[in-house]
Structure formats: C-alpha cells, structure tokens
Amino acid sequence: PGTTTDEGRRALDLDRAHVFHSWSAQGSLAPMVIAGGLGSTVWDGDGNRFLDFSSQLVNVNIGHQHPKVVAGIQAQAALLATVAPAHANLARGEAARRILARAGDEFSKVFFTNGGADANENAIRLARLVTGRDKVLSTYRSYHGNTGAAVTATGDWRRVPNEYARGHVHFFGPFAYRSEFWSDSVEQEGERALHHLERVIQAEGASSIAAILLETIPGTAGVLVPPPGYLAGVRALADKYGIVLIFDEVMAGFGRTGDWFAFQNAGINAEGMVPDLITFAKGVNSGYVPAGGVIIPPWIAEQFDDNVFPGGLTYSGHPLAMASIVAALDAMAEEGIVDNAATIGRDVLGPGLAALAEKHDVIGEVRGVGVFWALDLVSDRGTRAPLGGTEIGRLKSELLRRGMLPFSADNRIHVVPPCVVTADEARQGLAILDEALATL
Ligand code: PLP
Fold it and tell me: What is the pLDDT, as a whole number, of residue 299?
C-alpha cells in the first residue's frame, strides 16, 4: 500500500549508505524497511504486512496513523509550526492541562522536553535543586535514556561506556523469577528488596541522596512487575529519609498497563501512593512528534516562583508535539483506548500467554499487565538458564515469517502491541507466537 518495491529498495540503499544507527555496530546491519502503517499493522518496502507487536519502541500506544492525531498535527502546522519556549501558546497549555488531569490532583505543572531521557535529566535536576543533595539511586535493571545523567542512571550495559556524571548509585529492585535475594516467594522478594534499598540508603548516607529514580514497571529490562507493597515501601523510605521519589513512566505510562499511569494500577499500588515527580514521553502522543516531560507537584514548582529554574530546551513545548498530545489524549479518552488495553490484557493476552507457557517448555515465565508483557525464555526450566542468542534470533525470524514484528531484548520476547489492538489481532498474535515457539 502506497510504496513500490523500488522505493523500498531505495530506502534500504540510502539507509546503508548514509544513516548511522543507534546501539549498533554499523557494518552488518540489514534494517527492515517500514514503509507505512495503520492501527496495529505495518508494512515493509515490498508491501508485506506485519502485526506490530513491538509498537516500534513500545511507543505507538494509539496505533499507527490515527486520523485524529494526524489531523491535529496538520492543523497546528498550518497555524504555527514552531514557537520559542518562553512564549505562551494555547496548544502547550491545553496539553499540560490534559496531562495533569490524568496524573491527579497532587500535581500542578508540566515541564516539556524532547523525549524521555531529557525528561529524566530535568527530574534529576529538580530533585537536586530542591534537596541540595547530589546522589541519585536507581536500579541495575533499568533504562532511563541516553543523555549524560540519564544514561549514568541507567542500570544496564548502556551505562558503562557513558559513565561521566557523578553521584549515581545502583541497587537491585525486586525480580522474583531471578531473585538476587534468595527469595522463595514474591512477598519475600518485595520485603528483601526493600531491606536492601534501605541498607544502600544508609550506607551511601541518606543526607547525600537527592532522588530515587524508578521505572514504575521496568520495561526494557523485562517487564518486571513489582510485588504488591514494594512501591509503597519505596515511598515510605523516600519519606523517611527526605528523598525525592521519581517514577519514570516513559514506557509504562499513557495506557500501556491499562491505566493512564502505571502507578495508578491497583495490582502494584493498592495503597494509592503517588511519587514526587513523574517523567513521561512515548505514549503521551505515541511518538508522532518527539515529546516528553516532567510532571511536577506544587511543593516543588513553588520553589521556583522566585528562584530561576536552570534548565531549558529550544523545543520545550513544541507546538506540533503539543497538538499531537492534545489530539492523542482526547482520542484515547473518547475511544476508550486505555480501557481496551486493560481488557485485552485481562481477557486475551494474559490467559493466552499463560496457555502458551503450559504448552512450550521454552517459556520460563510470563510477566505483565495490559498490553505490556514479556516472555522470559529459558533453555532449561529447572535452572532457568536464559535461552541463547542464536535461538532468539531464529524465533524472531519465525515470527517475522508469519507476519509479526516482535520486540526482543536479551532472552525475551516482549509482547507489546498498541493499546488499540483488537481481540482478533491479539489472538492472531498468540497463534503466530504458538507456531513460532513450536519450531524451537
Ligand atoms: N525511560 C524509559 C523507561 C524508557 O523506556 C526510555 C526509552 O526506551 C527512556 C526513558 C528514554 O526515552 P527517549 O528514548 O525518548 O529519550
């Protein structure tokens, strides 16, 4: 649809000649051409169609080419395509108001950024300024972005070649299936992880710690849904030691868990506690235009009523991004898209993936909620040894051959379709997974 094989070939040729890619050795890359998309489907340069069970980088929550979002961007482009951040602009105010309405009454302001990494940079900056402290605690199994401080806060390998910023300390969050704490149960994992965090706080010196930065549900690290009570326990530690609690909702927020924000999910936060700062990007406008931001409560915002906030970006609150946020959030509300994510997770993906685990020994664990799932694949269920890269590569090819674009990380396949995925599409995806897993 809309593309010729020649255009597809040219897209690939130009890419290989001139485009430098993220997180890759460049020499042997053979990127798939994505020529177009609609809803939960994308097609390549030859017109082959795929169910997009990656949502690209887990960001296309509203699906591809949602007409209301495209129209919102077009209308804003015709009106005013760019404006400096110092000016007031209607689209920006409307976007901020809508985001705050979903975050809750505890928050009053939004600082807009270009994406998730700089949202975390600015949340960390705010936490340092309001506490007068320096250190940031974050978990080993996390991803917070690729800029200076955000990448240093990151817990995975991407941190190591980028460790310039000082004052970052890592700890282990809960992960019962691969416990660092010799736990026998999810409850024990939560309790021991909290004990470990408190000991890290004490050992680092509580008075030096500005922030605890946590992905509400660590995403790229494997959709590590925290045990009930863990987040409330972290909140209590942050309060006890005067530390700002930042939830990174870049991947988990805006519908992915079947809630507007993952921290609003009763399964992981029955206590209903709220963080001090929330960072967001991806799902807020499904990435139609780059955008992110920090959601700020009055007690932090007010500290900058008379003091200068030493941060800013040329494109903070860019009108095309703001118009896409307004249109995306309105469409998500009008069309019940967040509820759809919850329903699909509860009625189709949750039970369907559990049934696949019954059938295929290679699935060690299924974790997730809403349209945010991971299959933790193992070569041996007893030892839980992660499945090797060769097999994962083969599985990805088998999925693609059957018409599914998957998201894979380490030994896992993440099942992360758009929040608009239909029950039929979800079942089709499960059938493809079933067939492909059987080839292993
Ligand atoms: N935080 C989380 C939880 C993420 O998943 C990501 C990206 O995957 C980021 C931050 C970084 O966002 P961006 O790539 O927009 O800078």
Answer: 98
